[in-house]
């Protein structure tokens, strides 16, 4: 885009008046927007004229009458070559003017300074591409629903999405026994943990129910044991010697002879 050059000041003459300060004029009587041609309403003839120059700003020389082409005499406006001084904050003036322009617009033509576009929702992913926990039921229902509504899935033939759903269903069928076993094991672990956590409370409740002085007396009570019994917990006293000692000796001698006959053969091997 070509750069807009300011108008050239072809003369150093002025109307010998003091410089016209924009702060003394109404904000709507001049235009000093950056990037636009500077212009001003001449304070003498009240017509919009261009401000010439880059550093030294002047109102362009103009005629006081707009009917020179119709034969009227050309008369230069006293406001020609009037020096102009920009002594305002251009940015603040521009913001104020923009607000005034928006307020002056009809309600139907007003638009926000910055447009915010609501993003369109993304299309939903097909069922075959949804990544979720795959169980036998969650794999079976989408597959049957797809088979019911797809004209290309006939018999053993499947479309692309139907093939994906079918493989997912078969995989869920193969993994179902292992999944059930893992779920049962997890339930057992949960019950075992619950029992461990509740065991102290159970013992505390049992002690509160059956404990006290009665238990202490039972522990401290000593009763005479009957002959032939060690205690009520270990049972009767068992004999340590065989009933027929001669038969026991003969049996031990026979076993010794049998071991002696087997020993040489084992050594030879």
Characterization of the model:
It contains five helices and eight strands, in the order E-E-E-E-E-E-H-H-H-H-E-E-H. The protein is of the alpha+beta class and 269 residues long. Among the domains are: 89 residues, no CATH class; 81 residues, no CATH class. The strands form two sheets. A six-stranded mixed β-sheet has the order 1-6-5-4-3-2, with no helix packed on it. Strand 2 and strand 3 form a beta hairpin. Helix 2 runs antiparallel to helix 3. The longest helix has 51 residues. The protein is elongated. The mean pLDDT is 79.
Search tags:
269 residues; two-stranded antiparallel ribbon
SS-derived structural category: alpha+beta
The count of helical stretches stands at 5
Which percent range describes the beta-strand content?
5-15%
User: Which sequence of strands runs across the widest sheet?
Assistant: 1-6-5-4-3-2
Main sheet specs: 6 strands, mixed
Number of separate strands: 8
Helix content: 40-55%
Q: How far do the termini sit from each other?
A: 111 Å
Rounded mean pLDDT score: 79
> What low-confidence regions span 5 or more consecutive residues with pLDDT below 50?
none
Task: List SSEs in N-to-C order.
Answer: EEEEEEHHHHEEH
